[in-house]
């Protein structure tokens, strides 16, 4: 924990650039073998009637440990959910995902500890809202909460909660998401994804052009985390930052400034899926035909639509599975559940799979603790004892093992590619 | 047009002598030297780049013309609106954004967007028909907006017009968010995606060249229209002085409305052309482009289409060049990356350079009738009111539940911010949009003093506020040459620069986590918002923190009342009414303005410090320029020129007591809060320029008169309860 301040802040920043505005999905990569995700994938496709498939239920039960069927009677297990929506920026797809997951749990996974799972949603749009949500949850004696994705009110929420109940973060987007005690991020965090960027890019070539979001987190992640990693791997780098509000014309300038035309590979660190389209167009307009390594934000539906299926030859690094990869059992179960329970548009949108997985994890801990015994303390104990696997997330879990990131529990990124019109898994890249 | 001219009795210039224009009209104000300086500046930059023999830099400059084109187009829209009606329309970017959604709904979804409703028209419409319909819709909206909102504000103060356009911006943005969500919408490419290769392997996309060319053509066409047509001549006459226009037999209302229609067309045309080049539309990006567009328009003195367009292009090009230079090893670094905010500072830098070369100030506009400023009453019964405020404020924290206590904290801090606006805008008439930046400056300074120098409560917040006061005094320097809405534009650009250069600099402001603020502590006892306490229900927020906030804000309210009653306060009002008259009366306009900026910045700084304690940290986004606009809006709704107005403004702020009541009692969701706020703001400005406080005071006076058996009080100027004309300093009321 005795990191120097700049380094520490750089690490904080890593989180945000990769999830900020979070749209997009997952993976990218190349070599190593994906965890046991492929074997059941073929069976995990949607049921013939369009409803939930048995394979989806089986896959989910591996992570919840309950019994299939409807939830029983009794007082519901209430989970607080904080989501940013309403005014811009807004991420309503995360709350849609949480609602779909709740329906799935109650209809097919036997509920949480046999009781119905119920969400207590709270919407944030500003710093004041973070305090308001925390006060409401404390007042309502919430035992555990999920912070889905938000860039406003994170710090004030955690500070006001003050560790009185544990909070799971689905898509970390600000420093406090990854560095606050009693806040837990069940994925490899920004460090893992940035490491995957560097590993994947340097396998292609040593001359690396970087186009990165110029917001606070983007600059930190790129300057303080990614660049040293690339340097360590012997890369020759040139980085250009673009404003968060950049559209294609600004992105053309950024791609040109990064020296992409003469590089072996381009690393693109986006903050929103629309920027992926802009970079794609910018490279076409400038005649730059280089492989691109980016985050799963660029696997979003709007990018696939814009590029005619996907950006050809791009590699994606992510916190979690890519639902587009048909060989990924977790991703396919997630897709089937969301399509069945009314959130199909949320499937390929940012890190919504993480929200789904976080709720499954809460169901698992509730099943283990017993519905009558749940409390902030018992949840916290279960979280600390949890070693994985987490739904759709690579690697074992060990919260606080990454120096400076007390909230981060994982240590790997999951990769996927889009080549020849096909989305494929490309293995997991552990943090070196 | 001449046949529509009003008869003189309706708009009789002789009956209502206008405030004397304080500067010569636009044509007399020396446009040529400015064009010359602007041209020299562009030539100098190009020369430096060429001398550096860096073809990549040249390519960066050329590529920047694409993004500069939209800035330039919005600047043209701003100039059209201002020339025609004297309104600096901060909602210009939002109107462009709305046009983009109208076009995309037609072209992609086959829907016609009617306000926020999507009406099915039986299938997608082709590019050209969709463009024509969109432009027609924008023209109708332009006319309607002028008729409904801005025509009634023709004789309102400049700040009223700015605030109305802020309300319009909020309404448009929230309508789009409600109709389409805030998620970016992809736009189909329509212009060529090819590129042209220039010498030295410089590649430039064709669509950007088309956009750039279209802006140049538009600027030229606008110049020709305003130079050679009757409509243009009428507009130019109105821009000089509306009295001249009436004497020529034209109606200022029709000419102004026509310009709003025209502005809507220009903005929509370019929004539709630029959208496919941008590749996407969202409620925020184009809306925010109004900041550099206003800067470009200011460089063009809100009159010159050519200079405004050139400045817009130059801003885009310089920002692209800075982006490229950021890849160089010699570029200053912070935390491993190029120092942030340099590109965002370009608009401010261009404005300051132009101002430095200008010998004369910017032109102001002569108008029919008196420019009516909000009435600033002399505070009465200050002591009892402060005691009542203390009792109610403290009592609230002792009896209310957690949700309401949080709302009260938000309102109390909001009151402090509104007070800073009251001092600067309400008392001395200086429209600054940098108040939240100043508040943030104090917050960050407080956090830095605490973390680096170990200085804690109460010295850190006081020193932080004093540092904000110093910055506020520096901000007053442009105000010595500028006034009204032009100052608003400069301070808006300054707020963006402060946020980008200072708040986002990790070496200074704590980076991602923001700057951490430790809870206040006095005599060894912490009383932060989440400090455990046995007082009240034991839940957060800690009532002691709320009481502390109440004590600070009541003290500020008392001091503001004293200021209003003091000699300095009277001098401020004199400056607000007419700077030349004030100077003739022996008042130092310079000292008065500097004092007002310093005092209001100090008050804003204390609000920033309270805010830091409230959240336990200071983060850049909370103190952005649009936060200033939002608080200005609430201050105006409450009543911009009185302490009571600030109190009401504080009650109205987002997540304050009124919003919480609407949420808890009426079920108004957060999705609709911005829409309601924006509509409320527009209605207040149009129907009740004195704000809620002023109107309440009028009702109260009428009520007292009725009880005294007299007839209902009149609102005629000079009447006991009427707002005074702007050019008269009202005292003892």
Fold blueprint:
The complex is a heterodimer of chains A (432) and B (733).
Chain A (H helix, E strand, L loop, with lengths): L4 H15 L34 H11 L12 E8 L7 H17 L8 E8 L2 H13 L5 E3 L6 H8 L5 E3 L5 H5 L3 E2 L4 H16 L2 E7 L2 H17 L3 E7 L5 H10 L7 E5 L3 H14 L5 E4 L5 H7 L6 E5 L10 H12 L11 H18 L6 H10 L26 E8 L2 E9 L2
Parallel strand pairs in A: 1-2, 1-3, 3-4, 4-5, 6-7, 6-8, 8-9, 9-10
Antiparallel strand pairs in A: 10-11, 11-12
Helix pairs in contact in A: 1-7, 1-8, 2-12, 3-13, 4-5, 7-8, 9-10, 10-11, 13-14
Chain B lengths: L30 H21 L3 H31 L6 H18 L1 E4 L2 E4 L6 H24 L7 H23 L4 E2 L8 E4 L3 E4 H23 L1 H11 L1 H6 L4 H27 L1 E2 L3 H4 L1 H10 L5 H21 L7 E2 L2 E2 L7 H12 L24 H18 L2 H26 L7 H19 L5 H21 L4 H20 L2 H4 L5 E2 L4 E2 L2 E2 L16 H23 L1 H11 L1 H6 L4 H27 L1 E2 L6 H14 L4 H10 L4 H10 L3 H18 L3 H17 L26
Antiparallel strand pairs in B: 1-2, 3-6, 4-5, 7-8, 9-12, 10-11
Helix pairs in contact in B: 1-12, 2-6, 2-7, 2-9, 2-11, 2-12, 3-4, 3-5, 3-9, 4-9, 5-24, 5-27, 6-7, 6-9, 6-12, 7-9, 11-12, 11-13, 11-18, 13-18, 14-20, 15-20, 15-23, 15-24, 15-25, 15-26, 16-17, 16-18, 16-23, 17-23, 20-21, 21-23, 24-25, 24-27, 24-28
Q: Helical content of chain B, roughly?
A: 55-70%
* Overall average pLDDT of chain B: 84
Query: Considering DSSP H and I runs of 4 or more, what fraction of the residues of chain A is helical?
Result: 40-55%
Strand order of the largest sheet of chain B: 1-2
- Biggest beta-sheet profile of chain A: 7 strands, mixed
**From the structure provided, what is the oligomeric state, counting identical versus distinct chains?**
heterodimer
Q: Report the mean per-residue pLDDT of chain A as an integer.
A: 87
Biggest interface found: A-B, 81 and 82 residues
Number of helices of chain A: 14
What would you call the structural class of chain A?
A: alpha/beta
Strand content of chain A: 15-25%
Q: Tell me the count of domains of chain B.
A: 2
């Amino acid at each position: 924990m005795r990191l120097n301040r700049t380094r520490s802040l750089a690490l904080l920043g890593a989180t945000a650039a990769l999830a900020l505005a979070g749209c997009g999905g997952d993976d990218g990569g190349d070599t190593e073998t994906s965890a046991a995700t492929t074997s059941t994938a073929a069976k995990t496709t949607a049921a013939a009637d369009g409803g939930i498939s048995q394979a989806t239920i089986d896959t989910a039960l591996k992570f919840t440990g309950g019994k299939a069927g409807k939830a029983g009677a009794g007082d519901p297990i209430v989970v607080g959910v904080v989501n940013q929506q309403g005014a811009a920026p807004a991420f309503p797809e995360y709350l849609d995902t949480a609602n779909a997951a709740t329906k799935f749990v109650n209809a097919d996974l036997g509920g949480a500890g046999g009781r119905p799972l119920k969400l207590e949603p709270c919407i944030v749009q500003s710093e004041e809202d973070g305090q308001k949500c925390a006060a409401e949850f404390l007042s309502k004696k919430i035992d555990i909460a999920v912070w889905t994705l938000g860039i406003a009110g994170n710090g004030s929420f955690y500070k006001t909660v003050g560790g009185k109940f544990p909070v799971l973060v689905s898509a970390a987007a600000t420093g406090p998401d990854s560095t606050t005690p009693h806040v837990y991020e069940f994925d490899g965090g920004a460090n893992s994804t940035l490491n995957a960027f560097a590993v994947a890019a340097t396998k292609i070539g040593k001359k690396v052009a970087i186009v990165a979001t110029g917001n606070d987190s983007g600059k930190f992640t790129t300057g303080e985390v990614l660049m040293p990693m690339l340097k360590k791997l012997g890369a020759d780098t040139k980085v250009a930052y673009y404003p968060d509000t950049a559209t294609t014309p600004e992105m053309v300038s950024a791609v040109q400034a990064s020296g992409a035309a003469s590089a072996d590979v381009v690393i693109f660190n986006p903050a929103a899926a629309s920027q992926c389209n802009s970079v794609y167009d910018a490279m076409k307009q400038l005649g730059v035909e280089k492989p691109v390594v980016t985050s799963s934000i660029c696997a979003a539906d709007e990018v696939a639509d814009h590029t005619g299926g996907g950006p050809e030859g791009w590699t994606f690094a992510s916190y979690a599975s890519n639902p587009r990869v048909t060989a990924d059992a977790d991703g396919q179960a997630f897709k089937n559940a969301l399509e069945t329970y009314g959130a199909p548009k949320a499937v390929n949108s940012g890190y919504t799979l993480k929200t789904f997985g976080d709720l499954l994890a809460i169901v698992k801990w509730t099943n283990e603790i017993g519905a009558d015994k749940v409390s902030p303390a018992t949840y916290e104990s279960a979280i600390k004892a949890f070693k994985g696997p987490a739904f759709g997330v690579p690697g074992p879990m060990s919260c606080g093992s990454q120096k400076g990131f007390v909230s981060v529990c994982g240590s790997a990124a999951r990769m996927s590619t889009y080549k020849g019109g096909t989305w494929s898994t490309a293995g997991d890249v552990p943090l070196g | 047009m001449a046949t529509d001219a009003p008869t003189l009795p309706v708009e009789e210039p002789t009956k209502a002598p206008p405030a004397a224009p304080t500067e010569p009209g636009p044509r007399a104000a020396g446009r040529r030297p400015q064009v010359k300086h602007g041209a020299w500046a562009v030539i100098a930059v190009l020369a430096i780049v060429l001398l550096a023999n860096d073809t990549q830099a040249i390519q960066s400059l050329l590529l920047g013309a694409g993004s500069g084109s939209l800035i330039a187009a919005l600047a043209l829209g701003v100039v059209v609106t201002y020339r025609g009606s004297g309104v600096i329309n901060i909602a210009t970017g939002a109107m462009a954004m709305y046009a983009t959604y109208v076009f995309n709904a037609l072209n992609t979804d086959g829907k016609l967007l009617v306000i926020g409703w999507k009406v099915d028209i039986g299938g997608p419409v082709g590019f050209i028909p969709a463009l024509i319909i969109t432009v027609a819709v924008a023209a109708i909206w332009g006319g309607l907006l002028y008729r409904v909102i801005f025509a009634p504000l023709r004789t309102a103060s400049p700040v009223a017009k700015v605030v109305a356009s802020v309300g319009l911006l909020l309404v448009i943005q929230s309508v789009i968010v409600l109709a389409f969500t805030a998620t970016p919408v992809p736009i189909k490419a329509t212009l060529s995606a090819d590129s042209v290769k220039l010498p030295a392997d410089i590649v430039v996309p064709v669509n950007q060249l088309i956009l750039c060319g279209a802006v140049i053509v538009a600027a030229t066409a606008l110049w020709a229209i305003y130079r050679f047509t009757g409509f243009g001549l009428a507009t130019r006459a109105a821009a000089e002085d509306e009295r001249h226009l009436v004497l020529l037999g034209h109606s200022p209302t029709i000419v102004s409305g026509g310009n709003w229609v025209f502005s809507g067309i220009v903005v929509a045309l370019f929004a539709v052309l630029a959208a496919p080049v941008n590749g996407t539309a969202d409620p925020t990006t184009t809306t925010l482009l109004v900041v550099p567009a206003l800067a470009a328009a200011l460089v063009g003195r809100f009159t010159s289409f050519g200079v405004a367009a050139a400045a817009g292009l130059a801003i885009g090009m310089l920002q692209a060049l800075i982006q490229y230079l950021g890849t160089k090893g010699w570029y200053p670094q912070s935390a491993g990356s190029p120092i942030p905010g340099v590109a965002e500072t370009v608009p401010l830098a261009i404005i300051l350079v132009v101002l430095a070369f200008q010998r004369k100030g910017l032109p102001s506009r002569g108008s029919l009738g008196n420019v009516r400023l909000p009435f600033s009453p002399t505070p009465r019964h200050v002591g009892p009111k402060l005691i009542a405020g203390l009792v109610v404020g403290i009592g609230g924290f002792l009896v209310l539940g957690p949700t309401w206590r949080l709302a009260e904290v938000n309102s109390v801090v909001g009151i402090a911010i509104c007070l800073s606006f009251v001092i600067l805008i309400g008392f001395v008439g200086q429209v600054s949009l940098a108040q939240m930046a100043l508040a943030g400056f104090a917050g960050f300074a407080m956090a830095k003093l605490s973390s680096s120098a170990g200085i804690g409560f109460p010295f850190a917040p006081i020193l932080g506020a004093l540092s904000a006061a110093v910055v506020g005094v520096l901000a007053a320097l442009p105000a010595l040459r500028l006034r009204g809405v032009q100052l608003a534009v400069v301070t808006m650009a300054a707020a963006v620069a402060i946020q980008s250069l200072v708040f986002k600099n990790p070496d200074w402001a704590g980076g991602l986590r923001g700057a951490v603020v430790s809870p206040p502590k006095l005599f060894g006892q912490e009383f932060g918002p989440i400090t455990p306490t046995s007082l009240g229900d034991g839940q957060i927020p800690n009532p002691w923190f709320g009481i502390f906030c109440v004590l600070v804000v009541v003290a500020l309210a008392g001091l503001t009342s004293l200021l209003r009653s003091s000699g300095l306060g009277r001098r401020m009002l004199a400056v607000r009414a007419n700077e030349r008259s004030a100077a003739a009366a022996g008042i130092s306009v310079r000292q008065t303005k500097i004092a007002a900026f310093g005092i209001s910045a100090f008050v804003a700084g204390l609000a920033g410090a309270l805010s830091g304690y409230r959240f336990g940290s200071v983060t850049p986004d909370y103190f952005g320029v649009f936060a200033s606009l939002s608080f200005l809006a609430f201050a105006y709704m409450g009543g911009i020129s009185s302490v009571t107005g600030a109190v009401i403004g504080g009650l109205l702020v987002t997540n304050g007591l009124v919003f919480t009541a609407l949420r808890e009692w009426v079920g108004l969701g957060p999705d609709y809060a911005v829409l309601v706020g924006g509509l409320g703001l527009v209605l207040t400005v149009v129907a009740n320029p004195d704000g809620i406080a002023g109107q309440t005071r009028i009702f109260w006076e009428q009520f007292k008169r009725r009880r005294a058996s007299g007839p209902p009080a009149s609102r005629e100027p000079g009447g006991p309860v009427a707002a005074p004309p702007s050019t008269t300093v009202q005292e003892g009321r």
